[in-house]
Amino acid sequence: MTSAIACRTMIAAIVLAAVAFASGAIAGETPRLETNEAYVNEVTGADTLAVDDPMAVLSFVLASLPDRVKVFPTENYYYFRFFHGGTRYAGNIRLAAADRDSGKVHFEYYQVRDQWSPPGAAHTSVLDGANGVAVERLERFLYRVAFRGRSVEFALNDLSQAMPPAGMLAPDEKFLGPVFDESGVRFLLVFNERLKVFHFLLDETGKVADAFFSARHTDRIVIGRRTGFAFYRDHLRERKILIGVAEANSRLNTYFDGPFDQLPENFVQGDELRRAILAADPSVAGEIDRLGNFADGTGRYLVHPYMLYRQEADLDRAHRCAERTRRDPQRYYRCFVLDTEGTGEIVVPRRSRSRRPH
To answer: How many CB atoms lie within 10 A of CB 348?
Structure first.
């Protein structure tokens, strides 16, 4: 076997292992072991992948996947990563609710940015039959993507039964839908119709894929050891409200950049999300569709009520505000809508940034 073929085979095996792990194929067994030896072999090997040809990369990705995979994130991104020429690439295959039933699939990949490097080359395509790519709906949450003789079934995440527990919502809050973030953490997206603000609530109806520690200054704030997600333990009802995401994770577009890019796309009822966005920001009337996508294709409206924090102390102002206002729910719940720049002011969100794959 030549070194190029060996490296190609190794990359495929690593992708397959990652898919098996993410899909729960080894759930209940021992942890998956990662070694430096495997990593070094991966980054130093040579391969023949034509990385600048999106169709060649799509063929490689589909060939590396099992016959059926699970798409966990609720905006229907199937994320992948691979190394080529010593460079790490990331990407996704997305079956977007807006056009998957029209036979379209979104395909992206790019060179991963690190703290010391600028953004690298990126490739973005919307593919359909004109490109030789077939997208077939098999069931409501099951689609088949076929290209160059290879087909893979993508099982979307059916959270249609997910609901907030009784007593979880405040009187003025409306449940918009469940969110499964690429971090593996589940949320419930709600909108306060009186205050006109959004909240992401931690869904604790099942096992939470993180362990939490209390902030130094108050046990009302808890932070995920794995994700860095910061939550406030509500004084008025049993729930945790997302108040912060680590700024570095947002800047580098990691799996832990927060749930702004995983809205409940498959579960929004009618125009509920658009009505909520317009209530919060009437200036975008006529510009967005029912899922918050801008008609000019520049992105989606940014639902980002949590702050980006650099150090734990940045989160303290949420607690100080909550302590002052806990007897006034109409002021209290505004304490947990924090701007992304950390100024303490509540700002109206706008268009999301370009959403690169993780």
So the answer is: 12
